[in-house]
Amino acid sequence: MKQTKIKICGLSRRQDIEAVNHYLPDYIGFVFAKSKRQIDLKSAINLKKLLNSKIQSVGVFVNHPIDEISDIVESGVIDLIQLHGDEDAKYIKNLREKLSSRETMIIKAVRVKSKFDFEENEMVDYHLYDSFDKNIYGGGGQTFDWNLLKEIKGPFFLAGGIQLSNVELAINQLNPYCIDLSSGVESNGFKDPEKIKKIIEKVRRIK
Fold first, then answer.
1. The domain 5-205 belongs to what CATH superfamily?
2. pLDDT value at position 114?
3. Alpha helices by DSSP H, the chain
């Protein structure tokens, strides 16, 4: 089993960057969509300047205008795109065409309901499986029935309520390409360096 990669999503402060620079997850996420973790482009640019170059940055978007995503990609502040809304195959095709001059990987989030009844999109590089919540597009911090993913083929990101207490089970049960963490490494609504440290160390120990 390959070493599971780690993404810490929803960074918004200088001290968040300092924490990840120290413990070195594979990816971090800047949330440009409306949420309690949302940041604007100016803030993301300033944080990106401080980010260790070994860590790739992911921009999280929900039903954004394609031109806006393209401008953010062109600014160099993100290395990958994560679509976490209702973006369909036509949208993704148009986005690919807009970004034709840059080879930017696209992650498409799938909010898993009780019945696993969606079609995978062949135009994206990875799917990200998250829990379904009718009120929000992501970041709710709730797990879902992982048994629904047992037939999934190919590498994927796993999100939704993952924390120190269940991360080993998630990896052993599903062998995801990457674990996506947000609320599971927070205290009082902010990223907690000690929680980041502990969970990254735990994931790195899993063989």
1. Aldolase class I (3.20.20.70)
2. 60
3. 14-23, 41-50, 66-74, 89-98, 167-174, 193-205
